[in-house]
Amino acid sequence: MVRYGIEDDEGKAAYDFLKNAIIVITIVVVACITLASTTVIVDAGYRGVVLYMGAVEDKVLDEGFHFITPFVEHVVEMEVRTQKYEAIATSASKDLQDAHTTVALNFHLLPGSVNKIYQEMGLNYADRIIAPAIQEVVKASTANFNAEQLITERTIIKGQIEKGLLDRLNERGIIVEAVSITDFKFSEQFSVAIEQKVTAQQLALKAENDLRRIEIEAQQKVATARGEAEAIRVINIELEKSPNYIQWQAVQRWNGILPLVTGGAMPLVNIPLADTTK
Fold first, then answer.
1. In terms of domains, do 93 and 180 share one?
2. Which of 173, 36, 178, 185 is closest to 118 using CA atoms?
3. Would the pLDDT of 2 be above 50?
């Protein structure tokens, strides 16, 4: 009987130890869960939106380590770094040509407004507010230009689209950094017509340049001829001013003997003069 009593005591002790171990482990696990639920780390480039029992609180958590109320508060992170959103907007130009405009938008969320953005639009704010804004602004802007101007005055149109998006998005806490028009596409028939017109303009410009070149060459030839005629006229005038030379030319005949040359580096032709004493 004693032996059985000892065994019973040992079994009871083992049971108590196991029970106590389970209790301790449970307490440790609950403590860890509780501790974990009281702290949160907001990653770099993000802000934390605090939800109290599902309701958005009027505070925003910066990057880093924070304490929160366990089990009743929950934190949603929202990125505040520069992001890119691209959309294709279909609209009609002033001359009723269909235009497909691809717009690339660089933006970031205003850090202090992420709780309001989450409350009003949620995490899919880009589809809820940015996409409709791009569609409306592009349609309003392209309606002021004909199809050719959409190509030739791209910088002006880009400025109008950027201003329109600034006005619509910045007030909602979405800060527009840059807007780019990456592509304009029109109907195939219009694209062919534009290509033919550009080709015709290039050919006309080439013909005009060729005509201008021919005119310039003709003017150069006329100028050259006039210069030569003027040079001959000046020579004749100078010769007329030398009566001795004219008299010598009238009475002198070349006898096969070259004129005498005198001088050093610059040879001088000795022109014999007629004897005027006879």
1. yes
2. 173
3. no
